[in-house]
Amino acid sequence: MSTESSVIKNFDTWKKFLGERVVQAEKMGMSEDTISKLAFEIGEFLDNKVDPQNPSNRAIKELWDVGDEAERHTIASLMVRLAKKNA
């Protein structure tokens, strides 16, 4: 099993992984707004390409699927904050 695969299967590991990436991006000078926009783009990609591997990610996907674009941006921003808190 690849590291990426195991990261996606465990929600706590996923949050920590994302948090570390957010911290790295901030250290490189990216703003939280820019990071949230990237998170939105990643969310769109994951929605189309990845089957959620755990109940937490499945719930987020279901929220993503029923949300409009503005709500999806909110989900992305909240995921960035949650990830950063768990870094």
Could you explain the architecture of this structure?
- This protein is mainly α.
- It has a single domain (3-85), classed as Cytochrome Bc1 Complex, Chain D, domain 2 (Orthogonal Bundle), CATH 1.10.760.
- It has five helices and no strands.
- α1 crosses α2 (11-27).
- The radius of gyration is 12 Å and the shape is globular.
- The mean pLDDT is 86.
Please provide a brief summary of the model:
The chain has 87 residues and is an all-alpha fold. The protein has one domain: Cytochrome Bc1 Complex, Chain D, domain 2, CATH 1.10.760. It is built from 5 helices and no strands.
Fill in the keyword field for this structure.
87 residues; mainly alpha; DUF3243; Uncharacterised_YmfJ; DUF3243 domain-containing protein
Helix/strand layout:
Elements: H1 3-9, H2 11-27, H3 32-49, H4 55-66, H5 69-85
Helix pairs in contact: 1-2, 2-5, 3-5
What's the main sheet like?
Answer: none
The H-and-E topology, N to C, reads as: HHHHH
Computed Rg: 12 Å
CATH class: Mainly Alpha
- In terms of structural class, how would the helical and strand content be classed? mainly alpha
Number of domains: 1
Shape: globular
